[in-house]
Amino acid sequence: MKASLTGQACVGTSTLVGTQAVPVEVQIDVACGLPAFTIVGLGDAAVLEARERVRAAIRASGYTFPNARVVVNLAPGPLRKHGTGFDLPIALALLVATGQIPAELMEQHRAVGEVALDGSVRCVPGMLAHGLASVADGHALFGPCQAADALRTLGGLRYRPLESLRSILGDRTEKAPQNRHKPAFPEPDLSDVAGHTLAKRALEIAAAGGHNLLLSGPPGSGKTMLARRLPGILPPLDDEERVESAVVHSVAGLDELPILSGSRPFRAPHHSASIAGLVGGGAPPRPGEVSLAHNGVLFLDELPEFGPSSLQTLRQPMEDGRIVLVRAEGRVSFPARFSLVGAANPCPCGYLGDPVRHCTCTHAVVTRYRNRVGGPLMDRIDLALDVERIEPELIVRMATGEDSSSVAARVRQALEVASAQGRSRNAVLSGAALIDACRMSPGVADVVSMLARSCHLSGRGVTRLLRVARTIADLDQASAVQKHHVIEAVSYRKQES
Amino acid sequence: MDRNEMARRGEDAAAAYLERTGMTVVERNWRCTSGEADIIGLDADELVIVEVKTRRSLNAGTAEEAVSENKQRRLARVARHYVAKAGLDTCPVRFDVIAIYPIAEDRAVLRHHRAAFTL
């Protein structure tokens, strides 16, 4: 079609606010006058750079860039717009306004994507969130081919992948989906871990009840190895969780395909992580590690080495399952329901309580080291246990235990018991609901009070004991908590020093 | 040949060249309060504002480089004045730059940048 010199057009798109994609309208006016290309509507530097990309892409794709005054408005005006995803809707709006593509093509359609100078369409972070918003509003979505694999998993979305600006006209035959699915990386299996029977059992309980877990032990005893195997025994993500977690990954610009194929996230940030890195932040606010671990495991190795203020910021998300970032621009909330697994050395040198090696730390140093984690955080950790160095013979003989799939099967059964009783996560039970859920006989209740007295348990200590006991009973397929469940639960209480 | 003389001869050459390419030169050295346009022409249905730069050597950079962003903004202001004055406000406008490098007494290399910049 021949390019006309004046015209107006309007193309729908969306911009990210947290993990939500908010609808935005790209309005364009091509008018006579001094040649200019202006973008208004509170765009950041990346949005303004769209001018150069769009100009080059339109020429490179064989269309005409009008020698006219072009004004682009991104509505609603007061909302700040970020990123390069506006390139594609701006380019398409320009083509519609100058009559180079028919306007009907863009009806009930949105477009999100970056354009390269040669006109090809590139991926931007958050395509999954844009897809969800399009589904919610009943629009079809034009976007990059790269995102097609992920967006195909969203039910109800009419996705129109574009190779380049050229492919909007004529031949839009969809290429066979490139199978980008790498062969699923095998999750590490529990059977690789020699010995550590007690720790494996604790992992099983943590998986079944959603409890937070602290492993402490000397260097090289296998704390990290154990923690990495927790995602493998958790039940696979259900459909809703899959989308929730994948959207967070998509918004953070990470690969969402492993999550969409059902594997639970496992995040292991280094202890130098900043607060913004852990809980999210920046401008625009991006999800942090707690949100990337949503529906999965957040593993903090060398827990006491994390900055005390970083650790304290974890308390609110652990309580609420979300993190709310409040900024001058507004509030952004990210999901953050995760299981925390901490690993710590018992003391700075690592050998306190080791039967063979001698600890060289003074009492004061050990106390200070332990206090770094802080009481309020420790209160939210139901399971704490010591991981000892295992006998060399076990390693040499390659002693293997149960594999992850059989443990996972038990975890699944335990979750069925719990959901049959109307419970979701034992780790969040407290007060009357917890006592109700335990269904203890008077005899068992006596055992609990006796143990509480002899171990000097606080009220909170009793709560944690009962939560764990409830999960152990679930694993035992028992409807009520019995004496031996309580006694096992006591052993996962770290001696409070 | 002094600087002004050379600039004038450059503009003459540019105007002659533009006429040969089919453009109608309507103004030479059109002045207003915002500055001066070297050549204003009509090419088909477009109003063309032409900036001519002549350089004897590259010691001070190329001629094209001399059309800085500041200069571009000034030319845009001049264009607005002209468009308003001539009543051409629905006419598409184009900014061209012509660079001229003399290589002998009567010979020069001329480079014509059509639509050299937009705003």
Task: Provide keyphrases for this structure.
A: 497 residues, alpha/beta, Ribosomal Protein S5, domain 2, Rossmann fold, 3 domains, 22 helices, 37% helix, B: alpha+beta, Trna Endonuclease, Chain: A, domain 1, five-stranded mixed beta sheet, 2 helices, globular
Question: How would you describe this protein?
Answer:
The complex is a heterodimer of chains A (497) and B (119). Chain A has 497 residues and is an alpha/beta fold. Chain A contains 22 helices and 16 strands. Chain A has three domains: 7-168, Ribosomal Protein S5, domain 2; 208-396, Rossmann fold (3-Layer(aba) Sandwich); 401-497, no CATH class. In chain A, the strands form five sheets. A five-stranded parallel sheet of chain A has the order 11-12-15-10-16. In chain A, strands 1-2-4-3 form a four-stranded mixed sheet. Chain A has a three-stranded parallel sheet with strand order 5-8-9. The longest helix of chain A is centred in the C-terminal third of the chain and has 17 residues, at 404-420. Chain B has 119 residues and is an alpha+beta fold. Chain B has a single domain, classed as Trna Endonuclease, Chain: A, domain 1 (3-Layer(aba) Sandwich), CATH 3.40.1350. Chain B has two helices and five strands, in the order H-E-E-E-H-E-E. Chain B has helices at 3-20, 69-86, and strands at 24-32, 35-43, 46-54, 93-104, 107-113. A five-stranded mixed sheet of chain B has the order 1-2-3-4-5. In chain B, strand 4 and strand 5 (107-113) form a beta hairpin. The longest helix of chain B has 18 residues, at 3-20. The mean pLDDT of chain B is 91. Chain A binds chain B through residues 5, 32-37, 67-68, and chain B through 46, 76, 79-80, 83, 89-95, 115, 118-119.
